[in-house]
Fold these 4 entries.
Entry 1:
Amino acid sequence: MIAASLFLLFAELCFAATSAMVKYLAADIPSTHLVFFRNFFAFVVLLPWLYKRRATAFRTTQLKLHLLRTVTGIAGMYLFFYVITQVALAKATLVLLMAPFIIPIISWFWFKERVGPILWAAIGLGFLGVLVFLNPFAGGFPAVMALAFLAAGLAAWAKTVIRKLSATESPSKIVFYFSFFSTVLTAIPVLVTWQWLSWQLWLGVMLMGVFAVLGQLTMTRAFSMASPSQIGVFTYSSVLFAALIGYLIWGEAFTVHMFVGSAIIIAAGYMAIRQNRSPAIKIPPSGTTNP
């Protein structure tokens, strides 16, 4: 389990680094380009799988759900990338991490699934942690944070669709269809507003893609070695990595209330993940930049 935990911590560090690269590159590269390249690199990694399964890769009976998962995921990614450029990296990362707490609420309405009292308590505690972290009573609540919560809601919706798809589709096919559709759809605005990049910016875009792909691969490896109930709480380490990166690069302060809020959310996440052992609604772990 130690090795799995280390893999997951490295994955979350990569996701935080991906967000940092988005924040850094956004000053010179349109968000449409960044979202496209984020999805394009993920699709490139899947090409060997596509070649190997070329006879059956496109077979599906759930095309509408795949499209719904893609649209909600892309919309959440566009919003999250915008929020990253407007607020401290740790704040944007933390709000997106609310997605796992929103999933049971969507499932409660959509699938009529039971949500136990412990999970409701974890959800409430998670939202309390965000409130403490953001500390809106001290300096107001930036309007852009509403977009961050919307991004978290869209990410939660996308992951709820994944739960629905998993009843008939393999994980590799779900990932393939999202990568394929998201690459095609996000390429459209890029073609319309194409901007030539210097070789330095190309290196930055490639580095962003490498971090994102490394994070996805190592996260998958971690959860193949240990169950979410054992190591899933480490997914919340991304906010700590984001805070550290934000402090070192942009001088973003990490205050006491941010530390306390993070601790509350980690505790809430631990409560929710432990519930995965029961037949109630399960909360899937997720990478920060992967709505």
Note: The CA atoms of residues 19 and 122 lie 26 Å apart.
Entry 2:
Amino acid sequence: MDHNHHRRLKTAALALTVAATSQVLAFPGVATASTSSQATSSVTQVQQATTGAAGTTTAMNKGLATNNRIYRTGRLARVNCSPGALPAGSTNAYRRFLTRVTDCLNRAWSTQFRKAGMPFSKPRLRIITRKVGNACGGWATGAAGFYCSADRTMYMLITKNDLRQPFPLGIARLMAHEYGHHVQNISKIWTYYTAAQARAGKAQRLQLSRNSELQAECFSSVFISTQQGSSLFTDAEWDYTVDWFRKNGAKTWPQNDHGRGPTQAAWMTRGYNSGSPGACNTWAASPRTTT
């Protein structure tokens, strides 16, 4: 491996460490963060909204997650994505990169929804340099990005650490993960997720959260696979990223609501190798594969 590869992988190690707490903060409906005690207020709100026929509703909705039409659309559309250079210290370049990657995601997934015969809408992108209030409540400590379904917005925080050590693949992966939650939202996969959470005990809520997070990570890798061979990343950087998540991906999620490191790496690999959303059906997968 040449000197440039060594330098880029060293940058990747630092950037992924910063991003570890930023994998996702998904907010189904009006939910707050899906980790730790913050999930309690979310679940209570959903429970209050789903009294009476909650069990029937959950059963009816399950097919939206296990047999969604997005799974039958084949490989994700490959789009010509050129987000540009990402030099250290440039907030403008960082903003441009985030905007262009979002545009690439919009083009790829809009094609997929068209193939599925499902309505598509773009998420909003809000790029910020300090934490702000949002429609989903508070902001979890250490998070650099999240998707809020209440306003269908991806919030991306540019931190000083990000500016010092920008890692294009890591940033694109995070954005594609958050976008994966938007896909779950507008495809109505989250309709089942929200209803099921309202009736679940603690262990089942964690399982449901893992299904959601691992699917979003798989969707992210499906998109990343469409950029293979581009200037966005090298094969060595991808392999390094997957291995990093295998070893470290669960360290910031003590509740195990995102899956163990090896489990995250497995779904990343599955999505990347298939290139198809159909490979990301965590909702119909054996619980042994979503631990």
Note: Residues 20-52 have pLDDT under 50 and may be disordered.
Entry 3:
Amino acid sequence: MTRSDGPPAPTADPPGGHRRAVVVPLVAAVLALAGCAAGTTAPAADGGPRGTLTVFAAASLTESFTTLGRRFEAEHPGTTVTVNFAGSSALATQITQGAPADVFASAAPRNMATVTDAGHAADTPTVFARNQLVIAVPQGNPQRLTGLADLTRPGLKVALCAAQVPCGAAATTALGAAGVRVTPVTLEQDVRGALAKVKLGEVDAALVYRTDARAADREVDGVEFPESAHAANDYPIVVLTDAPNPVAARAFVALVRSAPGRAVLTDAGFQPPAGP
């Protein structure tokens, strides 16, 4: 299995900061992914999947989809899974601009709607998991943070995701539910960027998904807060209309939604989708 973290995205400016222009090489990314998808994609003799499968997945799915990609390859010899992990808004933009992909897994319905509204979804998207926010702090919680109100302390450096990114939208909702206003020192383009600021010691705290804090539990602690229940994100997945490998795409979505797939997601800290 191979993975790609996608083309670099521009980092939002902190309040009062200076803007730095970053050119996103989308065309290069599209051509590179087209090369990955150009292999044989015809069904195997038994009708099963084969060839290269390209999945665009939210950054918060990195550990889970890496595991599921390896499992898929083991269960279907002759397949290769390539996953492009990035912020859901960036992935949706890449898809609508023509980047070749078989499957899209978003960290929020809003970004999935960008793809479906543009006619790129072959089916109705299905929610396969939910995620909630925690306050990520350095191990040991040196600032003794216990809730969102603590993020307003003078001098405390906080990282948030940008508003257009699912973790940023969830943070806005949670902070609103708590009646708290936080001025971040940086706005990141995906949840891994916000988490990295804590791991590097550049900020005292960040609002990230529970799953990301769990994946980095040797370096950070996750502080739970009740308002996160008001900002739980649903994760939808769909096969794309122009999927180069639709047979493998449908098989991968089936794996994600299967009992073994749910077990991998639960182990990573995801919650099952709401409803039946």
Note: Residues 62-75 form the longest helix (14 residues).
Entry 4:
Amino acid sequence: MRQSRRSRFGDLIRAAGPSDRRRFLADLWTARGWETTVEGSVVVARRGDRTERLAVVSRSRLRPSPTVPAEATVVVALGDPERTRRAAPDDARVLSVDEFYDLVRYGLPAGRGDDLVADHFGVRLDDLPADDRGVGARGADEAGGAVVSPLSRRLSSLPVAPLVFVALLLAAVVVHAGP
């Protein structure tokens, strides 16, 4: 399956660890003119008398809804933005991966978003495939991108409810098999 630049960017963000995502978010807001610090699971951004608390959240394989910090005012949803909106505080602004990409690509001076992505993920946005002539079956290595295991993509796309059901069924078998 071939991927666009936008979907490859999403893969890079999803493949990064939580602390790497927070550092990227902090650097992005810094490039936008905010003073930032990483405090626990959120990035605190200050500019003048404004303060925003930023979080990047993804759906856990074990939970149907993402865990959103209660103090978050801006949330980047790596999964379904609607589920994230339901889990987020009422006044939080929720950004989808596409909106996050647009912010990185077009919300900064020319080339700055490219530099940020290169600094954090080792590949420039301009080096990612521009349209559906993506990396496809060749893998991300040849396009200069991060390698995301096809198995991890398949597992992360599975619905949670059947996985929980199978886990509970196995636990019941083990308990009843007993000593």
Note: Helices lie at 5-15, 18-31, 81-87, 97-106, 112-121, 150-156, 160-177.
